[in-house]
Amino acid sequence: MRTVLFVLLACALAPSAAPAAPVPKHLMPKDEPHHLYPTRVGDRHISFYGSAVIEWVVTEVKEVEGGLMVRSENERDGRRTPHEVVVVSRHGVKVIEYNGKKLDEPFWWVKLPHAGGNTWNDNKWKTAGWEDVEVPAGKFRAMRVERAERADATPTTYWWAPGIGCVKWSSDRTGRELKQFISGKSP
Questions:
Q1: Cα–Cα distance between 99 and 73 in angstroms, integer?
Q2: Beta bridge partners of 160
Q3: CA-to-CA distance for 23 and 111, rounded, in angstroms?
Q4: pTM greater than 0.90 (yes/no)
Q5: Considering the chain, what percentage of its residues have pLDDT values greater than 70?
Q6: CA triplet 171, 172, 174: central angle to 5 degrees?
Q7: For a disulfide at 154, which of 125, 172, 179, 187, Cβ 3.0-4.6 Å?
């Protein structure tokens, strides 16, 4: 009897090879990052697009119903031209103007919440998971988004980093990578 108790006690006190317990839910982040776009006036994106350098800057940020309206402008040779106007919210990044033209039908660059099977824009866009991506500006943890205009087409892939925006996109023909990101003014 003593031997059985000793063996049971020894087994109970022995280190276990079982995996660690999961992190309690109250210690996990409550929300996934939803600002997948720069949201400070002066935030500057500088990217390589083939051999060209593309630069745009955030020129206006204001609260609107449901999120932040962010206006940006392209910069080239000291001149500025309209880039895009988006609404950044917990629902994602929605484009409402592009190249100075208000869109009849705004569209989502990114749609949240991020979850398997999350599709939008007539199932042509989908989230495909978080990945580490390296570009000339550095290494980023980014949400991968794929867009396929046709079921038989090679998708264009975008990587969206919190607070930065699209750090890389690539298709079978071309692509763009973030060269440098310069933070603007904090609100």
A1: 9
A2: 143, 166
A3: 27
A4: no
A5: 80
A6: 60
A7: 172
- DSSP output for 93-130: EEEEEETTEEEEEEEEEEESS--TT-EETTTTEEEEEE
Distance CA 92, CA 108 (A): 7
- Here the CATH number for the domain that contains residue 46 is 2.50.20
Element (H, E) at 5: helix 2-13
Greater confidence (97 vs 19) lies with 97
The answer to whether 108 and 96 are in contact (CB under 8 A) is: no
The boundaries of the domain holding residue 166 are 32-182
Q: Is residue 141 part of a domain?
A: yes
What does the DSSP 8-state code read for residue 3? H
User: Residue 115: what are its φ and ψ, rounded to 5°?
Assistant: -155, 155
- CA dist 161 and 16 (Å) reads 39
The pLDDT confidence band at residue 186, using thresholds 50, 70 and 90, is: low
Q: What's the token pair of residue 17?
A: 């090879």
pLDDT digit string, tens, across residues 136-161: 999 999 999 999 877 777 889 999 99
